[in-house]
């Protein structure tokens, strides 16, 4: 890719991200729904009281309420509360560009990012004070790390393994459907086991370790 082409691609990506941000910022002051109020109620509790509140009124995993708990230290204004989800929504658009770009080329990555940026369901749920936009961002990041992990030209480093473990654990503490993503990746690992045995086994080990680290979250179910 030449310098001019690379600059144009970066410019297009920035424009797409700005469009995504503008669309997600368009209705941040709308009233809260019941389940959003539940999340805000949990996140507003003192840190020590949050586990009990989660068990009583919300069966969702703990990561998003914990992040919102910190976020609320700045302000409880409606727009500010929704901005956390909107931020993860924009980051998810960026991650989709990275995933599609790595798999199919830069043009496909930009096209995928544009489609996601304007997709009404994602715009809506990126304004929702729940874990959906965080889950989308982490799932895309996990797929991107998985693709890089199975690329034989990419070196296996401790830093890369640490990043994969952190994102895996974060996914489990964000949404229980993460296990479906892990199951799909496990099928790919079995398919690639013959030619990338060491990489496949190491990634499987990271997923297993992430499951062990999720055990403290099981009582909140």
Model description:
The protein is mainly alpha-helical and 221 residues long. It contains eleven helices and no strands. α1 packs parallel to α6, α5 packs parallel to α8 and α8 packs antiparallel against α9.
Keywords:
72% helix, 11 helices, mainly alpha, flat, 221 residues
Beta content? under 5%
Number of strands: 0
Provide the helix percentage: over 70%
Taking all Cα atoms into account, the compactness measure Rg is 19 Å
Instruction: Enumerate the spans where pLDDT stays under 50 for 5 or more consecutive residues.
Output: none
* Structural class label: mainly alpha
Mean pLDDT: 92
Order of helices and strands, N to C? HHHHHHHHHHH
Largest sheet: none
Global geometry: flat
Q: If helices are DSSP runs of H or I spanning 4 or more residues, what is the number of helices?
A: 11
Distance between the termini: 49 Å
């Amino acid at each position: 890719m030449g310098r001019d082409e690379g600059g144009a691609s970066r410019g297009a990506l920035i424009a797409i991200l700005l469009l995504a941000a503008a669309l997600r910022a368009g209705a941040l002051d709308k009233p809260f729904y019941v389940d959003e109020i539940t999340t805000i109620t949990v996140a507003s509790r003192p840190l020590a009281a949050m586990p009990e509140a989660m068990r009583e009124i919300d069966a969702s995993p703990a990561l998003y309420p914990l992040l919102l708990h910190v976020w609320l230290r700045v302000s409880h204004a409606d727009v500010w509360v929704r901005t956390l989800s909107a931020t993860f929504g924009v980051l998810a658009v960026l991650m989709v560009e990275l995933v599609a770009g790595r798999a199919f080329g830069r043009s496909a990555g930009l096209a995928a990012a544009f489609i996601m940026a304007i997709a009404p369901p994602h715009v809506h749920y990126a304004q929702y004070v729940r874990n959906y936009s965080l889950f989308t961002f982490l799932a895309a990041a996990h797929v991107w790390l998985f693709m890089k992990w199975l690329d034989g030209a990419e070196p296996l480093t401790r830093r890369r393994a640490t990043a994969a473990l952190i994102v895996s654990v974060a996914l489990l503490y964000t949404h229980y459907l993460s296990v479906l993503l892990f199951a799909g990746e496990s099928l790919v690992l079995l398919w690639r086991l013959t030619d990338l045995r060491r990489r496949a086994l190491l990634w499987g080990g990271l997923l297993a370790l992430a499951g062990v680290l999720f055990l403290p979250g099981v009582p909140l179910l």
